[in-house]
Design a protein that fits this description.
The chain is α/β, with parallel strands linked by helices. The chain has 13 helices and nine strands. It is about 35% helix and about 15% strand.
Length: about 325
C-alpha cells in the first residue's frame, strides 16, 4: 500500500492507496478499525511530505468544494481545516454564523441544504450540540466531517494525537497513556478512548471525582473496550506512563460548583516537574489546546523537551488533509 506523492505529481497530485476508507462521513472513532486508522496515518505521512515542500500545495482536490460550518468558536481546528483544504487545491466556503442567515431564523438543516446546493462536496461541522453532525449526515448528500460536537466527539483531534504519539514513539500497541483533566465534559477524551482502544493502548483516566463520568459504560458504551483504569489520584495515574495528555479546565466548571477552587485543582492535578518524574523517562506531554498555563501544566513543561504540543498543531494540518482526501477525493466506498 502506498500513499506517497511523487516529485512529479500526476493530474491529481496523489498516488492513490490500494485500500479505501469505507465510509462517506467521519463522525467519531467508535466504529473505526485499526486498519482504517493506519490508513489515515499512511495518508498523513504523504501529506507531511507535501507540507515539507517549497510549494505546499497539490491539485488533488481541484474542482472540489469544502465548506467549514463552525457554530462554535475555534482557532486551531478551523484554521487547520481551512489550510488543509487549500493545500489540497480545493475551493473553500467558510460560514461565519454571526453574519449568516441563521441570525434571521434559518435552521441548521436549511443552512446545510444551502451549502449542499452551493456545491459543497464535504462539510466540516463544529456544533455546540452533541449529535448535530449525525443529523447532518442523515439529511444531506454531502460528506460530513465532525470537527467537534458538544461534549460528544472530536475524531480529527484524536487521530492527530495518535499520529503524534506514533511519530515520536513508534508502535502504539501496549503504551500506557494517562489522560488528566475534565474527562466528563471532554469530546477529546471520549474520541481518544475509542482510538486508543483500537490501537491497543492502555488507558488511565484521572480527574477529580466530579469531573469523571459517573458511569464509564455510558460515557463510551461498548463491551469491546479493553479495561480502563480510572483514578482520582494523579501520582498513581502518572506512574509508568509513556504519554500524558492534559485536558483544558474550563472556568464554568468552578462556577457550576464542580470544583471547590482553581487553586485546589492546581494543587492536586497540575503537571509539575515533580509529577512528570513519576512517568517513564522521556514520556510525551500532549494538550489539545488552548492551554491554561499555570493551571493544567506549568509553562516550563508546556515548552519543554518532553512537550509535543507544537507538533500536535502542525500534525493537525497533515491529518486533516488526509481525512479530507479520503472522504472527498473519491477514495471511499459508497
Amino acid at each position: 500500500m502506498t500513499t506517497a506523492f511523487s516529485e512529479h505529481d500526476n493530474a491529481s497530485g496523489f498516488s492513490s492507496p490500494s485500500a479505501t476508507l469505507r465510509r462517506r462521513h467521519i463522525l467519531d472513532l467508535d466504529d473505526f478499525s485499526k486498519d482504517e486508522i493506519e490508513l489515515v496515518f499512511k495518508t498523513g505521512d504523504a501529506m507531511l511530505e507535501v507540507l515539507g515542500r517549497k510549494i505546499k500545495q497539490v491539485p488533488t482536490l481541484r474542482g472540489k468544494i469544502i465548506a467549514n460550518f463552525f457554530i462554535e468558536p475555534s482557532t486551531r481546528t478551523r484554521s487547520s481545516f481551512e489550510l488543509a483544504a487549500k493545500h489540497l487545491g480545493a475551493s473553500t466556503i467558510s460560514l461565519d454564523t454571526a453574519k449568516s442567515s441563521m441570525l434571521k431564523g434559518e435552521s441548521f438543516i436549511n443552512t446545510l441544504h444551502t451549502l449542499q446546493n452551493l456545491g459543497a462536496d464535504t462539510i466540516v461541522i463544529r456544533h455546540p450540540q452533541a449529535g448535530a453532525p449525525y443529523l447532518a449526515a442523515r439529511e444531506i448528500r454531502s460528506s460530513i466531517l465532525n470537527a467537534g460536537d458538544g461534549w460528544h466527539a472530536h475524531p480529527s483531534q484524536s487521530l492527530l494525537d495518535l499520529y503524534t504519539i506514533r511519530q515520536c514513539l513508534g508502535n502504539l500497541e501496549g503504551l500506557k497513556v494517562t489522560i488528566v483533566g475534565d474527562i466528563k465534559h471532554s469530546r477529546v477524551a471520549r474520541s481518544n478512548i475509542w482510538g486508543m482502544n483500537a490501537m491497543g493502548i492502555k488507558i488511565t483516566l484521572c480527574a477529580p471525582y466530579t469531573l469523571l463520568p459517573r458511569h464509564l459504560d455510558g460515557f463510551v458504551s461498548n463491551s469491546h473496550l479493553a479495561p480502563i483504569v480510572v483514578t482520582t489520584n494523579m501520582e498513581e495515574a502518572l506512574r509508568g506512563a509513556d504519554v500524558i495528555m492534559l485536558l483544558r479546565l474550563q472556568g464554568e466548571r468552578q462556577e457550576s460548583g464542580l470544583l471547590p477552587s482553581i487553586r485546589e485543582y492546581v494543587r492536586l492535578y497540575q503537571l509539575t516537574e515533580q509529577r512528570l518524574s513519576l512517568a517513564k523517562p522521556g514520556a510525551l506531554v500532549l494538550h489539545p489546546g488552548p492551554i491554561n498555563e499555570d493551571i493544567e501544566i506549568t509553562p516550563e513543561i508546556a515548552s519543554g523537551a518532553q512537550s509535543v504540543i507544537d507538533k500536535q498543531i502542525s500534525n493537525g494540518v497533515a491529518i486533516r488533509m488526509a481525512l479530507l482526501y479520503l472522504i472527498t477525493g473519491g477514495n471511499h466506498a459508497e
